[in-house]
Design a protein that fits this description.
By secondary structure, this protein is an alpha+beta fold. The protein is built from 3 helices and 6 strands. A 6-stranded mixed β-sheet has the order 2-1-6-5-4-3. Keywords: Coiled coil.
């Protein structure tokens, strides 16, 4: 009887351990999916100039750094930056596709990091038409049970005129936004194509 009880207790302990491992695995998968959806939502909002919706995806102290223009610190500064971009409307194209994610989630800590490729089609009727491609290296944080963007950093790899193509070179990066100074200088000085650029990786292996 003692041996039977001991065996049952060992089996129960193993089942509890397995349950805990499965719950952790499910939590990890759900967090992974939440981070994917968060970043994809950002791209969809940017597509249509929904700047307030995009800004609301950031943590209160979240940061934004794009194309070497400096760092904007805090959700409201991110909102101000986005509102300085061209408004969406008749004849305006600002497609901002979020692709090729590599995401690492620490569910216990409530943090995550992700690397993305953004493909852009930018322009307006009668004005300009451009191709763009950037690497995002972002950080995310769970806030009150909801995932938010803690750091969004877009390294512009390619920005070229549609009619010229990349065989003719690239468009120089715009280093500032009129009427809106960054809160901190760029964390990395660089130029995009045709200059070579490898955005820093947040991981050594997947």
């Amino acid at each position: 009887m003692t041996d039977t009880l001991a065996a049952l207790q060992a089996e129960l302990a193993a089942m509890k351990e397995r349950q805990a491992a499965l719950e952790a695995e499910v939590r990890q998968a759900r967090d992974f999916q939440a981070v994917q959806n968060l970043q994809a939502a950002y791209g969809y909002y940017v597509d249509k100039g929904l700047w307030d919706n995009a800004a609301d995806l950031f943590a209160e102290d979240g940061t934004l750094e794009l194309a070497g223009r400096g760092v904007y610190i805090g959700r409201e500064r991110v909102r101000a930056y986005l509102h300085h971009l061209p408004a969406y409307g008749e004849g305006m194209l600002y497609n901002h596709m979020q692709l090729q994610p590599v995401i690492h989630v620490d569910s216990a800590a409530g943090t995550a990091k992700g690397r993305w490729r953004s493909f852009m089609m930018v322009g307006s009727v009668g004005n300009e038409a451009r191709w763009g491609e950037a690497t995002y290296e972002n950080a995310y944080r769970r806030v009150d049970g909801e995932w938010k963007i803690a750091q969004l950093h877009g390294y512009m790899n390619i920005y070229v005129d549609f009619y010229e193509g990349w065989n003719k070179g690239g468009v120089k990066l715009l280093r500032s936004i009129d009427g809106l100074q960054p809160d901190a200088p760029p964390t990395m000085e660089y130029e995009c194509f045709p200059a070579p650029l490898i955005a820093p990786f947040h991981y050594d292996k997947v």
